[in-house]
Predict the structure.
Amino acid sequence: MNNPRLLFTIVFSLFASLTTSYGFIYKEIESLSRVELQHQLKTTDLANEVDNEGDTLLHLAAENGNVMIVKEVLKHDPNAAMKTDRFNETALHNAAANGRVEIAMLLLKTAPEAFYIQGYMLGTPVCMPLDRAARNGHCALVRLLLHPGITPLHQGNPRKYCSPTTLHVAALRNDHEVIKLLISRNLVPINGVNSIRATALWDVLNRLDEKELETFRHYSSEYTAWLLIRAGCRDTTMTKEELEYFENMPMPTLPIPIGYLVNSNEHCLIQ
């Protein structure tokens, strides 16, 4: 290009579009009253705009748990529930990842098909809302997404809705209630392997070998191993003695109130 002035004009225009095209700041919208928000939605294209991270207002409201904004956006434009961000995730993904049960119910009521949208934020083979909830330990939301009256889930192979390595993440976190839900609903292969060809049990057994493991984490990991082995999970590194130990032991007891084991804010009781 031989015209420096033209080059400057093009570069400046691109820069200006990058710095001014994003039409809102979430914190400012969050401070609006319901009437003010309704006015903004009616008189502007607020429901379709994105912030400087590429998120819509509905995505951010779902992430932050603002029920009022979610209700008003959906009332103004129900199609907003199906809009995706730069990771191809809908607002339902954000609600699921952050344990926003009421908001997830609103979104599913408006657009139940959002359950099937596959994102790629986690870099996993599947990244649907169910994955996002399970990987973050939100067992109440996992239950909601699995409820047949909420989501038309039970069509075809249930494993297509959840990444095989979600069980690894739940085992790594000792999220016992999530582990039981994943196994009982046949959502993951019990002996599925991750990128290094290891099963979920492999990580747990390695943790139990750590001498410095604190008492509670040891018992919690032992309970995780017990759950996995009782469900049929095996690992090639497991010795015959280890397998017999877990197969013959009663359900491990835990040294803290069991109701606060997974997520104290959700009171996920281990039965």
About this structure: Confidence is low (pLDDT under 50) at residues 8-22, 256-271. The CA atoms of residues 58 and 70 lie 6 Å apart.
